[in-house]
Structure to design on (213 residues):
């Protein structure tokens, strides 16, 4: 597979940012006059272009396939999947972690992943015999500690598109850097820790799920 050799050779963000397709279980609005169906959830960008410091493994580069699930690989070997429905973020993140741990995945899990939550992901991993670590946190400092101890974490956050699930692979408050995998746009991006924290601000606890095989 051809790799992009440097940041400067990458296409502009506007050309590589993609949105989830309308999934088989998405709620739709149907126009009886045009016979067209569209999602009740309008496409909005998650994390602004000016907040993104680097990006890789966007959907056009997802040329690997296992059991019908197409994915890309980052320069450091992390797996990236573009969610197959407007509201399939949680299980898409679970499948990315599964691939990281050399656990096989299947297309049905991806295509049927609509409106699931962390408990669904926990049950998915437990059925596979995978140990899970679930925490609820109220500040980003705790997330940094958890990632240092247990590695990549599924994190439930908010932001421009409402409730959303991402994977946080790296977080350094001292360097003000975070590397995340966002299933909504199907890429891995580097942003500031401040940008991540703004989307973690919530009246309730932030769910964090990690696994160990």
């Amino acid at each position: 597979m051809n790799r992009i050799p440097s940041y400067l050779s990458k296409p502009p963000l506007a050309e590589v940012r993609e949105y989830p397709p309308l999934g088989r279980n998405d709620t739709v609005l149907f126009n009886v006059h045009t016979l067209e169906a569209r999602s009740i959830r309008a496409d909005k960008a998650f994390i602004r272009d000016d907040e993104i410091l680097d990006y890789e493994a966007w959907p056009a580069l997802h040329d690997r396939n296992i059991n019908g699930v197409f994915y890309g690989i980052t320069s450091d070997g992390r797996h990236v999947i573009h969610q197959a429905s407007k509201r399939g973020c949680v299980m898409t993140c679970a499948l990315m972690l599964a691939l990281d741990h050399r656990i096989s995945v299947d297309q049905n899990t991806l295509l049927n992943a609509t409106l699931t939550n962390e408990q669904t992901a926990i049950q998915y991993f437990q059925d596979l015999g995978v140990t899970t670590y679930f925490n609820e946190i109220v500040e980003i400092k705790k997330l940094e500690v958890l990632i240092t101890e247990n590695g990549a974490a599924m994190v439930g956050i908010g932001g421009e598109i409402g409730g959303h699930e991402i994977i946080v692979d790296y977080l350094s408050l001292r360097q003000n850097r975070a590397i995340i995998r966002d299933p909504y746009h199907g890429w891995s991006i580097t942003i500031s820790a401040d940008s991540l924290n703004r989307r973690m601000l919530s009246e309730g606890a932030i769910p964090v799920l990690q696994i160990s095989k």
Q: What stands out?
A: The longest strand covers residues 164-172. The helical segments are 13-16, 89-100, 107-111, 118-127, 140-150, 193-200. Confidence is low (pLDDT under 50) at residues 1-7.
